[in-house]
Q: What sequence folds into this?
C-alpha cells in the first residue's frame, strides 16, 4: 500500500512527555495552556474545593476482577448487587470519586454488536444504514459495526429486545465488583489480549472481529478494553459521580458539565466507554469516560446492548 | 522537451500556515461583547482591566477574567492592521468548523486527556480564560472567537522550553511588543521585541508535536534548516509582505491614527498573514454581512493564488511514444520545482494539503486517451481514499502524483527508533493524531523533482498527441471532511490551479 517516499517516523512528541510544555514564566506572565489553577466545582463557581476534596486517592476497591461468569448465547447475566464505580485519581477528575453503586440484575451482550447483526436489523427495516464505507462487508461480518450514532444504537438495541446499557451497567460488567481497571485487574493487557494503541504503536491494523481475544471481564464480557468505543444510555457530565444516586443510576438529565472545569448546562453528549483500537491504554481502562453528541458517528464507535431482568 | 520559461524566484512561502504579526496595536479595555470603545477611553499603560462580559455562549465554570484587550479596541487606532487581521486565518482559527471537528475527535479519542493542546494555539485567550479544549465555536465567548488575536501576539515576550505547541509566554505590563520602541502613544507604550519579529515566534504554533507522538506540523522545523533561514529571511518577510511568498521592501506609513491624526512613519506589514487556508464559512470575516464576507474571501483568495504561484511550478513536461508499442504506449516526464526556500511544499498539518498533478493526454481529435489526477464522483482523487475506487466504479489512479503527506499506522512490531519494517502490513489513517509515522511527499526547499512513467493503453491511438499537466492545490480532501461529518463543507472547497504546462508528440 505504500508508495515511494521518505519515511519519517518522528518520535519527538513521545520523548517530550505527556502534557503541554511546562511554563516557567514569571508571575506576571501567562501561558495559553496553563490552566493550572485547578478545576472548578460547578459552573461559575471558581472558589470550588480542590479536586482532592472529592477525589480521595485512597481507593477502597481491591482492583481485582471479581464477578461471576454466566454467559449463554452471547448474553451475560449480571446479578443484583453493589460494585465500585469510578477511579480515585485526581488527574482524572471525571472519574472521581470512587463510589459504591448498587444495581438491579441485568444482562448485557458478551460481544460488541457486529456488522452481521446490524445488517440483519437493517434488512428487517428496524435499523437505518450506516455509511457504506464503515460496514466492512462480507467476509468481515464478525467485525464490530461502526459509524453508528446514538439514535441508531438505541434503535438496534430495541430491535434486539434490549436497550443501551447505563454507564453504571457498562462499568460493572466490564470491571466487576471491585473496580478492576482492566479485564484481568490492574495490569495493562498485552496486545495479544486486547485491541488498542500500545504507546506509539498499534496492537492491530484497525478493528478486529469481536471475540478475537480470550481475555474476558469478571462477568464474561469480551472486548470491553479497546476495539471500538461503545455508546451508553447516560448523558455525560464530568461531575456526575459527585452527585449520582447510589442505586441504579441512569445518568444526569440536566446541568451536565462537559469537563470538570468546563461548561455547564444542557446535557448534550452521551457517554462512550471502553476505548478503541486507536486509543491508548489509559482510554481502555474500565473507568475511562469519554463522550460524544448523539449525532456523532465515527469509524471507532460501536455498541453493545443490555437487557432488563 | 517543452521547457517553460519563468523567472526563478526564491520566496519563502509557508504553505499551510499563517504567521504572527509585527504591527503595533492600541491598548485599552473592552468587554468582549462590545464592538465600539467607550467614548473618552483614556486607558493608560498598565491599565489592562478585567473582562467581565463573556459575550456569546455559555461559559460555565470558565474564568472569564482576561488581561487581554479585544481586537475591536485595537481598531480604534490601528484600523488598517485590524482590517487585514480580520480577514486572516489567525482570526478564523477559533471559528473554523473543520478545526472544531478535528479537535472534538482528538478530545473524544483521548477521553479528554488532550485537554487544550489544540485550542492552546487556536484560541490562546480562550484557553487562558479556562475554556475547555472541547469547546467549539458555538459556545466560545467573543474574545475567544478572535482566535489568534492582536493583543496575544503583541503581549508575547518569549517561549518556554522547546519552540512549538504554543509555548508562548506573554506579559501584561502595559507594553505592546513589536518591531519598534515608542513611548509616544497615550494608550500604551511600545517595546521592540526580537522575539515577536523572529521565526521562533511563528514556530511556537507552527510546529506541532507530542500528542500522541509524532510531528504533525513541522513548518518551523523545515525552516530551521532551509536556505531562507541561512539567508536570514524570516517567516514574516514572506507572509507579511506586499507580495505573498516573496520577501521585499514594504511601504511606509502611519502605524496608528488617533483622533484623525496619523502617528509614526513606519514599515507597514500585512496582517493578513497570507497562507493556503481559507474560510469555509459564509459569514467570515463579517458575521452579519455575507456579501461583504464573500468579497473579502475573494480578495484573500487572489492573494493566496499569488502565494501558491510563488511556491511551486511545473519546470518541464515531455511526452514520448513508447519504444515497443509506439501506437499504444506512452512515456511521460514531468519536473516539479519548488520555488520556496523556507519550507517544504506543501507544509502545514499532515493529511490535509493536497497538491497534485492533473495530467491529460488527448489524441488528434481531442479525445482524452489518458488521465491521472482527475476526481471521482465524490470529488476525491482516485487513490485509496476514493469510495468510487473502493466500490470498483473507477480504477485506482496508480500514476497519481500527489505531494500530500500521509499518516500511517504501523502495528506493534514497529521499531520505535524510527526504522520501519517494510514488510509489515501498514494502513493509512487520515487523522494525524492516529498516525505513528508520517510519509512525506512534499518537495523540500528549492527541490527539483523529476517524475517519469510509462502508460500502456488498451487501444491504439492516432497522433499527434498533446499532454497537459495542471498543478492543483486544495487545502483539504473531501474524504477527510466526510470523515469529520462535515460533508456540507465539501462544496466549499476551492481548488487552485497553480501552473499549467503542455507538450506534444507526433
A:
Amino acid at each position: 500500500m505504500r508508495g515511494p517516499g521518505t519515511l519519517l517516523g518522528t518520535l519527538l512528541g513521545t520523548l517530550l512527555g505527556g502534557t503541554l510544555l511546562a511554563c516557567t514564566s514569571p508571575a506576571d506572565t501567562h501561558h495559553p495552556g496553563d490552566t493550572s489553577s485547578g478545576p472548578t466545582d460547578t459552573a461559575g463557581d471558581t472558589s470550588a474545593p480542590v479536586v482532592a476534596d472529592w477525589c480521595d486517592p485512597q481507593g477502597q476497591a481491591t482492583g481485582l476482577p471479581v464477578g461471576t461468569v454466566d454467559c449463554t448465547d452471547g448474553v451475560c447475566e449480571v446479578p443484583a448487587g453493589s460494585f465500585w464505580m469510578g477511579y480515585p485519581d485526581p488527574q482524572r477528575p471525571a472519574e472521581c470519586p470512587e463510589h459504591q453503586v448498587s444495581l438491579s440484575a441485568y444482562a448485557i451482550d458478551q460481544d460488541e454488536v457486529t456488522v452481521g447483526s446490524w445488517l440483519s436489523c437493517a434488512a428487517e427495516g428496524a435499523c437505518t444504514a450506516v455509511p457504506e464505507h464503515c460496514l466492512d462487508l462480507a467476509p468481515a461480518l464478525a467485525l464490530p459495526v461502526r459509524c453508528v450514532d446514538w439514535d441508531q444504537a438505541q434503535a438496534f438495541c430495541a430491535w434486539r429486545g434490549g436497550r443501551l446499557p447505563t454507564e453504571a451497567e457498562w462499568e460493572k460488567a466490564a470491571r466487576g465488583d471491585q473496580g478492576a481497571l482492566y479485564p484481568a485487574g490492574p495490569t495493562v493487557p498485552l496486545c495479544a489480549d486486547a485491541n488498542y494503541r500500545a504507546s506509539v504503536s498499534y496492537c492491530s491494523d484497525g478493528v478486529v472481529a469481536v471475540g478475537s481475544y480470550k481475555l474476558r471481564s469478571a462477568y464474561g464480557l469480551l472486548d470491553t478494553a479497546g476495539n471500538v468505543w461503545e455508546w451508553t444510555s447516560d448523558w455525560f457530565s464530568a461531575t456526575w459521580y459527585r452527585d449520582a444516586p447510589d442505586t441504579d443510576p441512569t445518568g444526569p438529565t440536566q446541568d451536565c458539565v462537559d469537563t470538570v472545569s468546563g461548561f455547564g448546562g444542557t446535557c448534550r453528549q452521551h457517554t462512550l466507554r471502553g476505548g478503541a483500537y486507536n486509543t491508548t491504554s489509559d482510554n481502555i481502562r474500565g473507568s475511562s469516560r469519554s463522550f460524544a453528541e448523539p449525532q456523532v458517528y465515527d469509524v471507532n464507535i460501536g455498541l453493545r446492548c443490555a437487557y432488563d431482568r | 522537451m517543452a521547457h517553460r520559461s519563468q523567472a526563478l524566484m526564491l520566496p519563502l512561502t509557508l504553505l499551510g500556515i499563517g504567521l504572527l504579526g509585527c504591527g503595533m496595536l492600541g491598548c485599552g479595555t473592552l468587554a468582549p461583547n462590545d464592538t465600539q470603545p467607550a467614548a473618552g477611553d483614556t486607558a493608560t499603560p498598565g491599565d489592562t482591566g478585567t473582562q467581565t462580559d463573556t459575550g456569546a455562549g455559555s461559559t460555565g465554570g470558565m474564568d472569564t477574567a482576561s488581561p487581554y484587550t479585544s481586537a475591536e479596541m485595537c481598531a480604534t487606532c490601528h484600523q488598517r492592521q485590524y482590517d487585514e487581521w480580520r480577514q486572516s486565518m489567525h482570526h478564523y482559527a477559533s471559528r473554523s468548523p473543520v478545526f472544531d471537528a478535528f479537535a472534538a475527535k482528538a478530545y473524544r479519542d483521548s477521553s479528554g486527556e488532550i485537554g487544550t493542546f489544540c485550542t492552546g494555539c487556536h484560541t490562546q485567550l480562550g484557553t487562558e480564560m479556562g475554556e475547555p479544549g472541547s469547546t467549539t465555536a458555538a459556545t466560545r465567548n467573543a474574545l475567544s472567537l478572535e482566535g489568534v488575536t492582536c493583543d496575544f501576539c503583541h503581549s508575547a515576550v518569549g517561549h518556554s522550553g522547546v519552540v512549538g505547541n504554543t509555548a508562548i509566554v506573554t506579559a501584561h505590563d502595559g507594553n505592546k511588543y513589536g518591531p519598534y520602541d515608542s513611548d509616544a502613544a497615550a494608550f500604551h507604550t511600545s517595546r521592540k521585541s526580537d522575539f515577536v519579529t523572529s521565526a521562533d515566534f511563528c514556530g511556537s504554533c507552527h510546529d506541532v508535536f507530542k500528542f500522541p507522538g509524532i510531528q504533525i506540523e513541522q513548518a518551523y522545523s523545515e525552516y530551521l534548516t532551509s536556505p531562507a533561514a541561512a539567508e536570514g529571511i524570516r517567516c514574516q518577510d514572506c507572509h507579511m509582505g506586499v507580495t505573498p511568498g516573496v520577501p521585499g521592501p514594504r511601504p511606509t506609513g502611519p502605524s496608528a491614527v488617533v483622533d484623525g491624526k496619523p502617528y509614526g512613519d513606519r514599515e507597514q506589514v500585512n496582517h493578513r498573514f497570507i497562507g493556503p487556508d481559507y474560510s469555509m464559512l459564509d459569514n467570515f470575516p463579517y458575521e452579519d454581512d455575507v456579501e461583504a464576507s464573500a468579497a473579502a474571501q475573494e480578495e484573500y483568495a487572489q492573494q493566496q493564488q499569488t502565494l501558491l504561484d510563488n511556491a511551486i511550478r511545473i519546470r518541464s513536461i515531455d511526452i514520448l511514444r513508447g519504444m515497443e508499442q509506439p501506437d499504444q504506449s506512452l512515456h511521460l516526464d514531468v519536473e516539479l520545482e519548488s520555488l520556496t526556500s523556507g519550507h517544504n511544499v506543501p507544509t502545514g498539518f499532515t493529511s490535509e494539503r493536497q497538491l497534485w498533478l492533473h495530467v491529460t493526454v488527448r489524441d488528434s481529435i481531442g479525445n482524452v486517451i489518458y488521465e491521472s489526477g482527475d476526481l471521482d464522483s465524490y470529488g476525491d482523487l482516485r487513490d485509496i481514499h476514493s469510495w468510487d475506487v473502493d466500490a470498483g466504479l473507477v480504477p485506482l489512479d496508480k500514476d497519481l502524483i500527489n505531494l500530500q503527506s500521509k499518516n500511517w499506522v504501523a502495528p506493534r512490531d514497529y521499531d520505535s527508533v524510527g526504522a520501519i519494517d517494510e514488510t509489515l502490513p501498514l494502513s493509512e489513517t487520515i487523522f494525524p493524531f492516529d498516525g505513528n509515522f508520517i510519509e512525506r511527499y512534499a518537495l523540500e526547499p528549492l527541490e527539483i523533482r523529476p517524475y517519469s512513467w510509462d502508460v500502456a493503453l488498451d487501444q491504439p491511438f492516432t497522433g499527434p498527441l498533446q499532454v497537459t499537466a495542471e498543478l492543483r492545490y486544495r487545502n483539504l480532501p473531501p474524504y477527510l471532511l466526510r470523515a469529520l461529518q462535515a460533508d456540507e463543507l465539501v462544496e466549499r472547497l476551492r481548488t487552485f490551479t497553480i501552473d499549467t504546462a503542455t507538450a506534444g508528440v507526433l
